[in-house]
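Feature request, filed as a ticket because there's no other form

It would be nice if the structure record came with a short human-readable summary line next to the tokens. Right now we just get the raw output. Example of a typical job, pasted below so the devs can see what we mean:
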Amino acid sequence: MRKVFAFVLTTLLLTSTLLAPGCKKGDDSPTSPDEAAVTQLKANGAIAPVSRTQVQGTVFVSDQTGNPVTGLASTNFSARLRFGAGVSKITADSISGVVTIQTVSASGKKVAVGMTMDYSGSMFAGDTVVGGKYKRISDMESGVKTFFNALKTGDLGEVIKFGSTVDYIFPFTGDKTRLCRAVDSLCDSRGNTALYSSMYRALQDAGAQSASSYARAVVAFTDGGENNSTETRSQVITLAKQLGIPIYTIGLLDASYHSTPPGQYSSAEKDLVEFADTTGGFYFYAPAAAQLSTIYTQISGQLSNAVQITIVWPSTGLPASGTTVQAVVTVTYSGCTTTFTKTYVMP
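Raw output as currently delivered:
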């Protein structure tokens, strides 16, 4: 259900938050029309250690329009490992790593996405009925079906519908027809908003899919704030980071809830921003339900064009096991640069 209270966001989660994207054109000229069209980069990802000297994960890079940047190579990436006397001072020591990437398709992986859909009472309240369904519900379902119809052979999707509880789950399948039928079914109002529980269940289900075979993600949609889950936000974020699964969040929020001016959020939007930033996905603001198909299409493009990243640190000079460290990943393309940071504990 929608929450109407203001919240001034003074800090984001500094240890694993997407840094503000930037673009500074250098002397190098773009090498292709596609590259020339990129004027800003945004990047984020979910990475986790596989040994003391190596981390792996999935990285998403998009341009100023939210569409995926393609044609990336290992030379577009660099990484440093930072560590020192506590998380707040992780700048005392720093070493460089060797970065290699592969596209999801080149790595042989498919995509597995847990999709959560909000059927709380506010999705129905005061809305117009079109073709037998409330317009917000119809637009949400059309967007999700657009996403599922864009899945490639071998990709998997799951449907979760929630309100006061996580009431309906359709298990992971590659059958687009069955997924779309699940989207269209059981569209009644379900009361409050168990957003956290829906994300937690989607993470559990996505986590059951093989990490070696699938680039896994959760896409969570809501029109308001959490108010009825059994799991906490901390539990959801912890599980996402443990599994290395990013959460993409979509907020169908009134304009008064949106970040205006920058840095001010309602409690509902703050939650959605931090879930995405911290776990490795992106947040999408939807001021109107009619925009949802476009947003789901952008998310589909980002997931299908994700890159699998491996960072190898030198075997000497690493901190002791149990030390909290930060992997700082920088992406440079078409004279634009952006950086994101992920925190983990050294094995």
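Something like this underneath would help us a lot:
Residues 1-22, 24-33 have pLDDT under 50 and may be disordered.
The first helix runs from residue 33 to 36.
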